[in-house]
Each structure stands twice: as structure tokens, then as C-alpha cells.
Write a structure and sequence with these properties.
The chain is of the alpha+beta class. It contains six helices and five strands, in the order αβαβααβαβαβ. Helix content is 37%, strand content 17%. It binds flavin mononucleotide. Flavin mononucleotide (FMN) binds at residues 11-12, 130-134, 156.
Length: 191
């Protein structure tokens, strides 16, 4: 798959099954994460990989966090099963490093790029994935249970595996004119 096809036609995949990427394939996915734009090479991220027993453990921690956070019963009930929607879940944590040059947002963007890069590297190797968030991304109780530092922020749960079926073709691109403009004071493309 060439780079432009990957960029233009990549789809997320909700229905994932085993096998998960492992060995060389998983190493390649992580190498893609380590190659994202990273101002000053701060490596402002941490990846927590849950597979096998790790999915059970993550589910238990999510259920515990949901319960402690006073979530409704149906949310508590679902939280234990959440990680089992794929054979591998990569929790991507933005771990902001001390810097007078690179802001918190810039570092978090680097971590966000890592989510996308890993998804693309997975798809390029025939796997599927989806970037998920939801309440667990912001839940300080879960952060604590995952041994995150107070300043850490989860930026995504990347679910990876083998697509149960090929996702439908990508929807047509957005209308560029609705999202693209010149600096104020210059005519738009339509004028
Ligand atoms: C930061 C972020 C959080 C997301 N969280 C969720 C989520 O919790 N659940 C979900 O179904 N999709 C979520 N999405 C959207 C999916 O990753 C995906 O982009 C969407 O289903 C559209 O599919 P596509 O990537 O094939 O266009 C999130 C995307 C981003 C960038």
C-alpha cells in the first residue's frame, strides 16, 4: 500500500479479533510512534500495552474506576468488557516533560500523532484499529490506577487487531472550501 493510498483511504475498524499485531509487526508499529514529529526530541509519551491477561486487568481497573467515580450501573457493567473489544489495546499517555521551549500542548500533540502513526502502521501491515477515548481518558482515578503522574494525560486508547470484515470504503473528503481560507484581508478562492 503506497503512502497516499494509506492517507486517503485509511478506515478505522470497530470489529476486531485475534490475531493482534505482535513480534516484528508490533515492533514496527512502535517504531512508527517513535518517528512522529517531536520538538526537541522530548519523547513526551508512554505506551501501556494490554493483551491477554492485560485486557482482563485493564477491564478490572476500568470497572473499579467507574464504580469509584459513581458512574451509572450500565456504565460500570460495560467498563469491564470495554478492553475486550480488541486483542490489543495501546493506552497512549502524553507525558509532558519539563521544557521552557516546548509547551504542554505541543507535547500532547506529539503523543496524539503517535496514535495516528501506530494506527497507520497497523493498517499498512494488514491489521485494523480504532482510536477511542470516552470517560476513561479523563478519569483521574483510572490514571492513578495506571500509575500515571498527575500531569500525565491519556490521549487515546488505540484498539488493534485483525478486522472481522473489511471496513466500508472511506466517505468522500470534506469540501475543502468550507475549511480552507487565506489570511484575513485576502480574497478567498471563490471571490
Ligand atoms: C481523539 C479521538 C477520540 C475518539 N474517540 C472515539 C470513541 O471513543 N469511540 C468511537 O467510536 N470513535 C472515536 N473516535 C473516532 C474514531 O477513531 C474514528 O475516527 C471514527 O470512527 C471514524 O472512522 P474513520 O477513521 O474510518 O473515518 C475518536 C477519534 C479521535 C481522534
Amino acid at each position: 500500500m503506497d503512502a497516499l493510498t494509506l492517507l486517503l483511504e485509511r478506515r478505522s475498524c470497530h470489529a476486531l479479533q485475534a490475531p493482534a499485531p505482535e513480534g516484528e509487526a508490533l515492533a514496527t508499529i512502535l517504531r512508527a510512534a517513535f518517528r512522529v514529529p517531536d520538538f526537541q526530541q522530548l519523547r513526551p509519551y508512554e505506551f501501556i500495552l494490554a493483551a491477554g491477561d492485560g485486557l482482563d486487568r485493564l477491564g478490572a481497573l476500568m470497572e473499579q474506576a467507574a464504580r469509584a467515580g459513581g458512574k451509572p450501573d450500565d456504565v460500570i457493567e460495560r467498563s469491564r468488557r470495554m478492553p475486550h473489544r480488541a486483542p490489543l489495546v495501546v493506552i497512549v499517555v502524553a507525558r509532558v516533560r519539563a521544557s521552557t521551549i516546548v509547551s504542554r500542548l505541543e507535547q500532547q500533540l506529539t503523543a496524539g500523532c503517535a496514535v495516528m502513526a501506530m494506527q497507520m502502521a497497523a493498517v499498512a501491515q494488514g491489521f485494523g484499529g480504532i482510536w477511542r477515548s470516552g470517560w476513561p481518558m479523563f478519569d483521574r482515578g483510572l490514571h492513578h490506577a495506571l500509575n500515571l503522574e498527575p500531569d500525565d494525560q491519556i490521549v487515546g486508547f488505540l484498539y488493534l487487531g485483525t478486522p472481522r470484515q473489511s471496513p466500508p470504503a472511506a466517505t468522500p473528503s470534506a469540501d475543502a472550501d468550507a475549511h480552507v481560507s487565506p489570511p484575513p484581508g485576502l480574497p478567498t478562492r471563490e471571490e
